[in-house]
Design brief:
Elements (H helix, E strand, L loop, with lengths): L9 H15 L4 E7 L7 H13 L3 E7 L3 H14 L6 E3 L8 H6 L1 H7 L2 E4 L28 H7 L2 H20 L3 H10 L6 E2 L6 H8 L10 H11 L2
Parallel strand pairs: 1-2, 2-3, 3-4, 4-5
Amino acid sequence: KMPTQQGLSHKHVIDACDNALRRLHLDYLDLYFCHRPDPDTPIEETVRAMHTLVMQGKICYWGTSEWSASELEEAYKIAGELNLTPPSMEQPEYNMFARHKMENEFLPLFEKEGLGTTIWSPLSSGLLTGKYMDGMPDNTRTSLDNYQFIKDNFESEEYKEKHDKVRELHALSEEVGIPLVNMALCWCLKNQNVSTVILGASKEDQLTQNLESLKYSDQFDSTLMEKIETILKK
């Protein structure tokens, strides 16, 4: 590909949006993401491109995915100085085993800029569903060739420690009467800086179960959160 056919250059950001609108048969996008930072393109160029799309009415808001706090701070600084449209959302990984960005790095941005979040992998690639506690079933992603990296991760020492915690979390979920998958999703939603959770369901019954998490939200009191935290800190 040519340099202007990839990454977050002004031309590619504009062209990709136009192509998406054409494929989706839409007049505008509600939210348009910069999927991963682009070290080869100045952030100012990307911010200008997104502002152009907002002014053209092709997008309502724009966001980022897996940007660092410093990259986001630069984007906000540029937007403020040049009177451009700043990002509204960041899409970080967040779950019981991936917490640093949401609970530490991004805190100043939540407070100062009102940054929203659309978190991904709330179930840690399925680990927090409990379905891998007794091995890797044949009907899961780990059995597919293009998901070998997940299988490799699950066999690492780090993941073995996580599996031990999942077993304890599963026992706690049975104790309180909340399925583990719903407990993991509710835990994410309890963070006031989580705007929405992206569900990675591959089957209808998985989606149905995930959505049932909302009915357990009232059971998530400080006592339950403390019990979960005790397990996670081991």
